[in-house]
Amino acid sequence: MKNRLLAVLTMTTLLAAMTVGCGKKDVPKEEPAVAPVEASTEEAVVEASVEASVEEPSDAAAEETSFPLITADLDETIGNGIIILCNNLYKAGETQGEGHILMDQDEPDENGEIKCYVLETFGAFEFQDGNFVECEGSGVIPAVVTVRKNDDGKYEFVSMVEAEDGSGFVDSIKENFPEALWSRCITIEDDDRNELEKQKKSYAEEYLATIGREDAEVGDYSDYEHTLLTDEGVSVDVSNKMLDVQAGDGIEFFCPMWIGEREVLDEGVRYTYKTEYDRDKKQIIFSKVLYETGEVLETSTYDAKTGEKAD
Predict the structure, then answer these.
(1) How far is the C-alpha of 6 from the C-alpha of 176, rounded, in Å?
(2) Lowest CB count within 10 Å: 75, 184, 189, 302, which one?
(3) Crossing angle for the helix pair 11-18 and 74-90, nearest 10 degrees?
(4) Strand, helix or coil at 20?
């Protein structure tokens, strides 16, 4: 069975990933609107994922400041490593958060390396209809994180290996984790799950405070009602045509797949992408709006009866 996400990653590769731009506050490229999804099964080591993502460089200096991979605190080092690795995979949202529980750790080996046995989770957040919503992320995943304790007493993130997906899951737990942790890893308890969600959302809440929008509610896609085109009487056929339109490279790609809006940061500028339905004209309208002024920058309109472009 393939590994879902990560295999061994060296510090050199991690630092290379940082230059790609896994920043906490800025996204180098706009991302499509989707309901939150968990990562699909991935094969091969994370170096391949890093190489695939180097197409969109951004501010590496900010990343090094926000998420140093060598710190005096073990939990901080582990958390920073998780964010950098997972953000390099997802590259969505305008801020990211992680949660992890350090269940146990080995004694340092002859190289000062320590195996840490954790439960971890990751989420990326964006504004949807005024709420700050986890737009992509993972479930709770058992992982083995290796850190190195340096001569100055600081911890250096070295690698992370996650449990396998599917039929190989239990075997990978038994192979990589102490027996005393097997049950906790195989069956995730509500207390652990809730603690990880709390940690992950704390990143989102902290970010909201830095941009003066702490009144926004933090949640998951499923926490909110979404009005679909079919709820307004648009046929399934036309609704499916709109999904095809939104798979293209126009502004529709960034508009939500429900009637509503989502925000996207692009090189520090905030835009609102809207999907609207005009009941009187029977039209579906996609638009890109400059958030700060409300100026409509671009629109495209489709006939809600035929799905054909109307403008």
Answers:
(1) 14
(2) 189
(3) 60
(4) coil
Question: 95-134 pLDDT, tens per residue?
Answer: 999 999 999 999 999 999 999 999 999 999 999 999 999 9
Whole-prediction pTM: 0.78
User: What is d(CA 53, CA 43) in angstroms, rounded to the nearest whole number?
Assistant: 16
CA–CA distance, 30 with 37 (Å, rounded to integer): 17
- Rounded CA-CA distance 135/126 in Å is 6
Separation of alpha carbons 5 and 1, rounded Å: 12
**Structural domains of the chain in order of their starting residue, each with its CATH number:** 11-221 (no CATH), 226-303 (3.10.450)
Taking only the tens place, the pLDDT of each residue in 157-191 is: 999 999 999 999 999 999 999 999 999 999 999 99
* CA–CA dist 107, 121 (Å, integer): 25
| Per-residue pLDDT tens digits for 128-152 | 999 999 999 999 999 999 999 999 9
Tokens 């995943």 found at: 141
Q: How far apart are the first and last CA of the chain?
A: 49
Residue type, 78: I
Within the chain, where are the H helices?
11-18, 46-52, 60-66, 74-90, 169-176, 182-186, 190-210, 236-246
Residue 60: helix, strand or coil by DSSP?
helix
Please, what is the Cα angle at 226 between 225 and 230, to 5 degrees?
A: 135
Handedness of CA 21, 26, 28, 33 (dihedral sign): positive
d(CA 250, CA 270): 18
For residue 130, what are the CA distances in angstroms to 34, 73, 291?
16, 35, 12
Q: How buried is residue 222: exposed, middle or buried, by Cβ count under 10 Å (0-12/13-18/19+)?
A: exposed
Token pair belonging to 64: 């090094």
